[in-house]
Write a structure and sequence with these properties.
The complex is a heterodimer of chains A (494) and B (379). By secondary structure, chain A is an alpha+beta fold. Helix content of chain A is 56%, strand content 11%. Chain A has 11 helices and 15 strands. In chain A, the strands form 6 sheets. Chain A has a 4-stranded antiparallel beta sheet with strand order 5-6-7-8. In chain A, strands 9-10-11 form a 3-stranded antiparallel beta sheet, with helices on one face. In chain A, strands 1-4 form a two-stranded antiparallel sheet. In chain A, helix 4 runs antiparallel to helix 5 (188-204). Chain A is rod-shaped and about 145 Å long. The mean pLDDT of chain A is 87. Chain B has 379 residues and is mostly helical. In chain B, helix 1 (8-35) runs antiparallel to helix 11 (346-372) and helix 3 packs antiparallel against helix 10 (285-342). Chain B is rod-shaped and about 155 Å long. The chains are: A alpha+beta (494), B mainly alpha (379). The interface between A and B is large, with 68 and 56 residues.
């Protein structure tokens, strides 16, 4: 033991102290960043003194994985909830009668009023106006679904794009980290940055993380497809609908990772969570299901108001038509469940009764087809043979048909089917909302726990700095003492 | 250690996050307090939203039905009043006929009265309510009744030609006057008898010939035929046989009009025509009595029929009243179940909103205190 040793120890202590202060300063700087993880430089004894190692990150990889999982689940639920909320706009509030039920009911009421006073042309107009309102509601709902499908497709593409870009960034960082770790460099900030990328990845797609030597990470989707191993795998969205653009044929994209289909019908390893999974669920199941329901409503309307000729063998479209065609929707028309909202967007009020298109609303009373296309009476479809102003039998027949159960609607009446459509949307929205709330709450809790596990407490850092300041002063004191001892020794020699 | 550690980020952001959520909640609760309904009904009811929209729809339907029933009831009321007026006029005329002394003055009086009654009948059958013909059946745009007495006159002229032949064949000379028509012969005009009928056995060939002439459809010389369905539609009425039907509730449909083609009106027209259109004042006493008896029989039939029509209209009105009362009750029940589904308890909401506001102000003061709670302030 010599004074030399004491001075050396003090020097080492100063160096360790400086490093610890530097790390603490970084912690203070990162206190506001939720993605920053607390660093520390624990001291270890080395020779006759101490050295500050590291820096080391405070982290909890198990907790972080749970956080990633919760993020993916939340994003999936949010994507679904967004979709349902948009669909719920086609239903509206129960009170404002803008839903299919409200409009159908208003049409039935208007028809009944007209049937009770068939000589009143204003009531005929009112009934046709109600029918147009109903058609507009069905068309608008179909349009909303259509828009949503186009948007969902775009979102899936951009989401797949984001995943692809993030993976490239991830690859760069991961390479730097593994190289840095093996050569003993400080990679803690890169690790933080890599965690941020993981967090953003988990928003788009559910991931599982496996760690290997040298801080190397391997990423799999939650369904088991390799996303990243040493190098990033390809993530693409493939359009599977070649005739995109037609109103009845919205674009549709399936996501392929590393050559494996992970969304869509017949996906080999379907994704379970993340935004992409939610969007795919919307695109492939929920939106087509709603579109098919709207088509059924349109089909139900056309067939309820169809008119049969005197022979009872032939029928023509009545008040409602398929894109204005006098014929009933037949084998060439796409039918539910594959129809994809085609009929719902093509539903229209027969121009013969539409006063805005030069039609005569009172034809509703006498039979829409009682005059042919050229305007000449068609005896095969004539109902009001007396030409009576208050003839109502045909209208009452229409009312009966509108209130009848239909096989095409699963044995339900138009109103009941409309109500079940409303119930479908609202029920899905409610359950998706509560799922989203639950996963959101879990995520909130996990981020709080995670922030506590790896975040910075400024008070803690301040206390630590005080402690370091004291230790610096003590070391300086030691050096001063050694210095004075040397002074004393040297003055003897002099 | 980890469980004791709270990061500065959490410490400062925790209360702020709460305040943000709570403010959204307060806005929602305040809205619910005013409307007393859930602010987002679809989200709260979920799959039951379908049922709620149906209930709303039924409510709207009931309101419209009630309004329509009110209009129908007014129309039926007017119809009923007119039928009742016609019935009492028929009653009065019948009383006059029954107590009629057989002299020429009285014959002239009733002849005029019957003519006026016939005009009144036609006018009344052309009554309209709110621009709609009441007795036209479903043909509510054209006045249904018109005066068909000209055709009756023609028939009588034809009868007189046949009677002239009979008069000559019976050994009389010269031109027969109306006064010469006997009760039996007039009987043939009013109620023709099949000449082949055994009732006419033993009658003179001339009388049989007269019976044949009145019976023959082509000769157009019989009174009753002027009031059968075909002649009535051609000369008296353009009404439709189909009556107006009204749907008064979701499931119930009623007939709510009376057609001018109904039997009682035809009986009335027969009764008034036989006295008013035919030259009843010129008939001899016996024949006049036959005409009066015929008229009394027809009036009796008409009064009976009109009473039945009145009763039907009355019960329709009564039914409309009952249905509207039921609809009002149903409306109340529907409203109650809607309130139960969509409504919120305002007291509960108020308490919740107050509690939230308290929590928010607490969280604000906590935030500012936490900001001060820093070790640097105490060094």
């Amino acid at each position: 033991m010599s004074l030399e040793t004491a001075l050396n120890t003090a020097k080492m202590s100063l160096a360790a102290n400086a490093k610890q202060i530097a790390v603490s300063a970084r912690n203070v700087a990162g206190a506001d960043d939720p993605n920053y993880s607390r660093k520390s430089a624990p001291t270890i004894t080395y020779g006759n003194g101490v050295v500050a190692t590291g820096p080391v990150r405070a982290s909890d990889s198990l907790l972080y994985e749970r956080y990633l999982g919760a993020t993916s689940a939340t994003k999936r639920d949010e994507a679904l909830l967004d979709g349902y909320t948009r669909l719920a706009q086609t239903v509206g509030d129960t009170e404002d009668d803008a839903s299919l039920v409200g409009r159908t009911g208003a049409l039935v009421d208007a028809l009944r009023e007209y049937a009770n006073a068939p000589s009143d042309d204003n009531l005929a107009r009112a009934a046709v106006t109600s029918a147009k309102d109903l058609v507009r509601a069905v068309n608008d709902a179909a349009q909303t679904v259509e828009t949503l499908r186009v948007e969902t497709d775009a979102e899936i593409r951009s989401s797949a794009d984001t995943v692809s870009k993030l993976l490239t960034e991830f690859e760069e960082l991961n390479t730097r980290i593994t190289a840095g770790t093996s050569s003993g460099l400080d990679v803690t900030d890169d690790l933080d940055r890599r965690d941020v990328i993981l967090g953003r990845l988990s928003e788009e797609i559910g991931i599982t993380v496996v760690s290997r030597a040298n801080n190397d990470l391997v990423l799999y989707t939650d369904s088991g497809v390799t996303l990243f191993e040493t190098i990033a795998r390809s993530v693409t969205a493939t359009n599977v609908n070649p005739t995109t653009g037609a109103a009845d044929n919205p674009p549709k994209s399936y996501v392929v990772i590393d050559g494996v289909w992970v969304t869509g019908e017949g996906a080999q390893m379907p994704l379970k969570s993340g935004r992409i999974a939610g969007l795919a669920e919307l695109q492939d199941k929920q939106l087509p299901a709603y579109a098919a329901q709207l088509d059924s409503v349109a089909f139900g309307l056309i067939s309820a108001f169809q008119e049969t000729d005197t022979s009872g063998l032939n029928a023509l479209a009545g008040l409602f038509t398929n894109a204005g065609a006098p014929a009933l929707p037949g084998s060439s028309t796409p039918m539910p469940p594959d129809s994809a909202g085609w009929l719902a967007s093509a539903l229209s009020v027969n121009t013969r009764v539409d006063p805005d298109k030069g039609g005569d609303p009172t034809l509703l009373r006498d039979g829409v087809n009682s005059v042919d296309a050229a305007g000449n009476p068609d005896p095969d479809y004539a109902h009001n043979t007396e030409g009576a102003a208050s003839y109502s039998a045909h209208l009452f027949g229409l009312l009966d048909a509108a209130g009848a159960r239909q096989d095409a609607l699963g044995g339900k009446t138009l109103l009941d089917y409309g109500a079940s459509t409303v119930a479908w949307v609202a029920g899905n929205r409610q359950s998706s909302d509560s799922a989203s709330k639950a996963s959101g709450a879990a995520l909130q809790l996990l981020s709080t726990t995670l922030s506590n596990a790896r975040g910075v407490d400024l008070n803690d850092e301040a206390a630590l700095q005080l402690q370091l300041e004291r230790s610096f002063q003590a070391t300086a004191q030691v050096m001063a003492i050694v210095n004075s001892l040397y002074e004393a020794l040297l003055s003897i020699v002099r | 250690m980890a469980s004791n550690f709270v990061s500065t980020y959490n410490l400062l952001n925790g209360p702020r996050l709460f305040a943000r959520n709570a403010q959204a909640q307060v806005a929602r609760l305040n809205q619910e307090l005013v409307t007393e309904r859930h602010s987002d009904v679809g989200l709260v009811l979920g799959a039951r939203t379908g049922k709620a929209t149906l209930l709303h729809q039924e409510l709207a339907g009931i309101d419209r039905l009630k309004a329509a029933n009110g209009a129908t009831s007014a129309r039926v009321g007017t119809t009923s009043a007119i039928v009742s007026e016609l019935r009492s006029a028929a009653d009065t005329f019948m009383a006059t006929l029954v107590g009629l002394p057989t002299n020429e003055t009285s014959a002239a009086t009733v002849h005029g009265e019957a003519g006026r009654n016939l005009t009144t009948l036609i006018d009344k059958l052309n009554s309209a309510h709110a621009g709609q013909q009441l007795f036209g059946g479903v043909k509510t745009e054209t006045a249904p009744a018109k005066d068909g007495s000209a055709a009756v006159d023609t028939a009588f002229e034809n009868f007189r030609t046949a009677f002239q032949t009979y008069w000559t064949a019976s050994g009389n000379t010269g031109t027969a006057t109306v006064n010469d028509i006997g009760a039996r012969e007039l009987g043939l005009f009013l109620n023709p008898v099949d000449p082949a009928s055994p009732d006419l056995a033993g009658e003179t060939p001339a009388f049989i010939a007269l019976a044949t002439a009145t019976w023959d459809a082509g000769a157009n010389a019989r009174f009753d035929r002027e009031f059968d369905a075909a002649a009535w539609s051609a000369n008296w009425s353009s009404a439709s046989d189909t009556n107006i039907k009204s749907q008064i509730s979701a499931t119930e449909t009623l007939t709510t009009s009376v057609s001018a083609n109904a039997d009682p009106f035809r009986a009335l027209a027969r009764a008034y025509s036989v006295i008013g259109s035919l030259p009843a004042d010129q008939l001899n006493a016996e024949a006049f009595k036959t005409a009066v008896n015929y008229a009394i029989a027809q009036l009796g039939e008409a009064v009976n029929g009109l009473t039945i029509e009145e009763a039907n209209l009355g019960s329709t009105q009564n039914r409309l009243k009952t249905v509207n009362e039921q609809l009002t009750l149903q409306r109340t029940l529907l409203n109650d179940s809607l309130v139960a589904m969509e409504g919120v308890d305002p007291y509960e909401v108020k308490v919740k909103a107050d509690a939230l506001e308290l929590q928010i102000s607490l969280s604000y003061s906590l935030t500012s205190r936490l900001q001060k709670l820093n070790i640097l302030n105490y060094l």
